[in-house]
Design brief:
Number of strands of chain A: 15
Strand content of chain A: 15-25%
Radius of gyration of chain A: 20 Å
Largest sheet of chain A: 7 strands, mixed
Oligomer: homotetramer
Number of helices of chain A: 11
Chain lengths: ~325, ~325, ~325, ~325
């Protein structure tokens, strides 16, 4: 039974709390949030002790693992305390907005051989697992293109957009992890095109809400990721991987299984956000790896790699050129 | 080049005229209709000579084949003239409303070894051909059930319903031919349930417009055919054949290939009547068989068999019992 | 918090135990099974006390509700004890193989005004709920046909088939409840056609494994239900309701959301049994009704009605005629 | 009745010949090809006179319109003769590989007010017509992204690739016309990424066979076009247009309408090339415009515009930067 300290009781933190509480091999030990009321709500629903201070958590010897789901600017300090304490950690993405800080903390975690899992949870969706397995099995032959379309249903609150680190770092980073995972190699170059089409207030922050990012891989594989902040017909997340011997494509899940035939044609209901279930699958993978003393994956370094792509994509946005990605430590 | 005499310039006759005109190995010789204006329109569009009388056609020696698409009550007399003239004939279904007359003319045609093709054109739709081939090839294993749903878009004019011979003989006869063709055997028993739900005027004629007919085959295979006279979302024609090793199912064709995603869900357009194209495929099969001196199929006897099923189904409607089908001549 | 006594710790009983344990407003009080080891396994997994005898349960005053999931021949006696104890009861279908016994116990339960819920759980599947709501809302206009295809993935063990009461009473009874629920009226007549195609051993028992049953309703609505015991491509359960103004159709759920495009075409995975989730929805509906002191639905009388249809269908199998259904007490 | 002179009796020329022969208001007058045998085959199948020389055609006064489907390097000279003769012309794309020559001939045609139609036939596919109409009608609100995936079934012969002007000019030019037509504005910038993945011999020519091209429009609309030269599952052509109020998406057409359910899942057949039918629709649009003395669209200038995008895309391939597109004459 793994006892968790949870830092951060916001949206992601609450989901992690529920998944830990429901997991047969895990339970909540401590919950800390700078907003004590939020932490209290999590404790009331899912158990664990309300920590009054971070120190209360770190001084406990009844903790086996840590989840970092607090605001991005607190991640690195918490990671350092976890490294010091030698506690396996599940850290939400992105690691930090400052890529130099990320590089240092990744080096420190690797130096300490601490298993740190970074929250690229889409890798654990059953359908994407199946696609990955088929690709590794050679079913598609050489991978030629990877085409992703991902649209949120509604934009996040503007307050969130302000501190998110920008659209490419906050949202597209999921796919900067996913595409190399499918391709089996890291991209060497990126080109980004972006627009602010959904909400002018996002543009006023200097950010974008609609983007098309092209990746080029050393083998010649090409990939394009379309991301948007709003879709009237519900969330959209489609992945299509095309190779010499075939193609794999996800199909959208609907909120019911009914066709309605009318005088005007045939209607289906709206798409639903099936990526939500990936939180539980990812937590399960983390718990399993820690219990089995296996390496965690995606690792903190995977988090850094995806961020380096996002950094290069941001530079491409500014320069309107393809930008090479430098993975050197 | 096969020169045709066409009897009947109504809806089916006009379609046959166009298909003959467009066929590389066929042309229209004569067109006759009791409604001379209708015959004139066909000649103007698709060629051939306007026959003033039926005798003008039969006395010609420039005719190689006959199409009978006139009203049902004229079929048997025309068939007899065609037999006498030794001319291969494409005859629309049903052969005659009086099954005893049908039996006699089938015997006469067989006695004369005249190739007479009966217009069960659905057999020639490419998708159904493919299904039939897979079944004959054993892909489904033993056939267990055949499930057909067929709904017209709109009911025919009441005048047509009056002379059609009733819903089961006029409409469902297509499937009384199709299901045995798939099953590879003739049904031994039929049960019919019918209602008048679409138009009370049809009920006033003593007819029905909605029916569920169950067939039982000697091997134990079961089949149900649902037919209806009106569907607000367009024509419906679905066939599903289930066997020990798999299932084949047709998918509905839409009038365009576009999905429209809206705030309310996803919309497709209406179904279209893809069975229309089977007229041309059937005519081509007839022409090919005549040119190659091969037996025609479906034959006049196939027409009789389907009608015997329809007769038994009508008896079942009256008696509310399963009725055995007697195929003896 | 509703404390349950559970009779029967087999397949259905275990599912009910889990759903009760997971329900926020319910818990297991006692578990009894003639097979004590089975009851022990349920208690170990989901809580409650292991009852050594039935009397131990009935003499407790710490029970608020009863679940009857034991073998069919024990249902009526257990129902009588529940009536005596005045305990709201969830009873698995069928109530008893002897319809006269069913009639008596239904009368007794109604006399006692005891809420008894009968386990026609499909009514609670979200998609079917949505369809039912749309129909009641008039979206389809007058209902003309209801077409159900339901195939198990694999036949049950022969031992089960021996005591099940026959295919129509065991399996098709679900749809004998469902179709009238959609149609808004009880059928007046039934015709059944059946075959033994899957396993000759089932035929040796005098039973069938493939059936087509036609229902006729007073309004003229027609319905056909196809049921089978084995499907190589996974479970099949499709419902199509056709009315004057449109059609509703369920779509099959697949075990993943991936299309695989290959040289031979496009492949999807197999169907999955989405009806499993209906157990939890049905239990939730029962708990909710008991807590709110609302009438339970489907009631014991609904169970009797469905059984009367099954009885008439069995008579139709024997007589090869349509059989009128007599609902009189 | 429009009498056509056809230059070029290769693949595209033969298709045009058949469509002209089948059109109720058009017929073939002359057919010329440098390969006389090819021209003879077309005349034998579809009528018209075999022209021994080009001069024979231009000196005739029995010609109403011209189709230019000969090799690309002959287009401009033929266009000049057509301008001189004042004959409305249907010209295959691309107009010429040298964009400066294209500019001059476009200016000459516009100066002469000659209707010249350029063969961007996809605009006339019924589905894309419907999508265009809905967009113009405002059904999608502001257009945010246009996402096209188009893959050939098999690469063209290497001989063709050698003279085609390169992948972007030969293949992707169709979409450089289509996307602005949907967007309602011309793109201001293009970025191209390309690889040679299908056939190294194409790479040896300095060409690519797989490309991802990003377009940016003045309004902020973004578009990405993926093109490839080979797809094992059949041709692929999918268009998805996403706007503030909804999305339109084409669905792939299959070579039959049958689902095959097996132990392994559900199979469909391969995609078919539905773009073929657009040849006839485009020719019909040209004939209709000439007869009605309406302006033709897409015009020669549309051909130039698409080519300017292709030129900029080729420059982007070389420079690895986004390239502005200059439409000035």
């Amino acid at each position: 039974m793994l006892r968790f300290a949870l830092f951060g009781a916001g949206r992601a933190g609450s989901i992690h709390a529920r998944n830990i509480a429901n997991h047969p091999n895990a339970e909540l030990g401590y919950v800390y949030d700078i907003d004590t009321a939020a932490a209290e709500r999590v404790v009331a629903s899912f158990g664990g002790h309300l920590a009054i201070s971070q120190e209360e958590v770190w001084s406990s010897d009844a903790i086996d693992a840590v989840v970092i789901a607090s605001s991005t600017d607190t991640h690195v300090d918490l990671l350092r305390r976890a490294i010091e304490a030698g506690l396996p950690t599940y850290c939400e993405k992105p690691i930090d907005k400052d890529v130099e800080r990320v590089k240092r903390v990744v080096a420190e975690a690797e130096e300490a051989s601490l298993p740190v899992f970074v929250g690229f949870r889409r890798r654990f969706m059953p359908d994407l697992q199946m696609m990955h397995k088929k690709i590794r099995n050679g079913d598609l032959g050489r991978i030629e293109t990877v085409n992703i379309v991902a649209r949120d249903h509604e934009p996040p609150p503007l307050e969130y957009a302000k501190v998110s680190g920008g659209f490419l770092l906050d949202k597209m980073i999921h796919y900067f992890d996913l595409v190399p995972w499918f391709a089996g190699e890291q991209p060497s170059e990126v080109f980004a095109a972006g627009s602010c089409l959904v909400d002018p207030a996002i543009g006023d922050l200097g950010d974008i809400d609609t983007a098309l990012v092209t990746l080029r891989f050393p083998s010649g594989t090409l990939s394009v990721i379309e991301n948007g902040r709003r879709s009237v017909y519900g969330v959209e997340e489609r992945i299509e991987i095309f190779g010499a011997d075939g193609m794999l494509q996800t199909t959208p899940p609907y909120d019911n299984q009914v066709f309605h035939y009318t005088e005007n044609g045939v209607e289906r209901s709206r798409h639903v956000d099936y990526a939500q279930e990936s939180f539980a699958h990812a937590m399960d993978a983390f718990i399993h790896a820690v219990e089995a003393s296996e390496p965690v994956s995606p690792s903190l370094r995977d988090g850094l790699r995806a961020q380096l792509i996002a950094e290069a994509a941001n530079e491409s946005l500014r320069t309107n050129k393809a930008v090479k990605i430098d993975y050197d430590p």
